[in-house]
Amino acid sequence: MSQSTASVITLNINGEKHTLPVDHRTTLLDALRERLDLTGTKKGCDQGQCGACTVLLDGRRAVSCLQLAVAAEGREITTIEGVADGEQLHPVQQAFLDLDGYQCGFCTPGQICSAIAMIEEHAAGWPSAVTADVRPEAEAAPLTAEEIRERMSGNLCRCGAYVSIVRAVARAAQADDAQQPPVSDELARLAGSEQKEGVA
Ligand code: FES
Ligand code: FES
Question: pTM of the predicted model, to two decimals?
Answer without folding.
Answer: 0.91
